[in-house]
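Quick question, first post here. What does this chain look like in 3D?
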Amino acid sequence: MLVTIDNVLQEDELDALREGLRQADWATGVSAGPQARTVKKNLQIPEGDPRLQDMRTTVMRALNRSETLLSAALPFKILPPNFNRYSGETNRYGLHTDSTLRPLPDGSYLRTDISATLFLSDPDEYEGGELTIEDIYGVHQIKLAAGSLVVYPSGSIHEVRPVTRGERLACYMFMQSLVKDTEQRRHLYEMDTALRGLRGRHGEEDTDLVRLTGLYNNLLRRWSEC
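> Answer (accepted):
Ran it through. Tokens below.
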């Protein structure tokens, strides 16, 4: 399931992140599995950068505000966000799938159910650089406004097309969902979206809505693996 979410970042948060990116010490991106590493040609902020923790906190605060993200991803764990840059000779990330397991700072591992890209450059600031994602419905080319987010299954084959002009800045992250199965997550997301629409029209105390909300929560309990 591929979901795009507009305006995840507030304007001041986006400005702060872009300022941090301007001051960052960039390094060749190496946080990838064996196959992906062979096609990864971008830059990222290394772990030792003193600005990284504050930038991660800004992103996590914004993610926690997003009802749509919580509904679509049902996140159990989120790997600390990282930041990348595509320009010049380091301008693409070829076809790959994301590694299934990623180490967390506490030494445990996160199962990558969902990948996400938070765009930090506006589309008119660069040419190329589309995030291309393959699924059963075809190939999708994603190029969102700065501050907007796309989430998609980590097992999807995807790539970042070459940036031929300008600079593409983004934040990327991986999530382990409460619900591992992609189709079950999609059913829950569609049901929750419909429930929110019905609440807006009928109010929280409608008896049928109470029962449907109970059904949603019981399905979440049944399908949750955490």
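The radius of gyration is 18 Å.
The domain at 3-177 is CATH 2.60.120.620 (Jelly Rolls).
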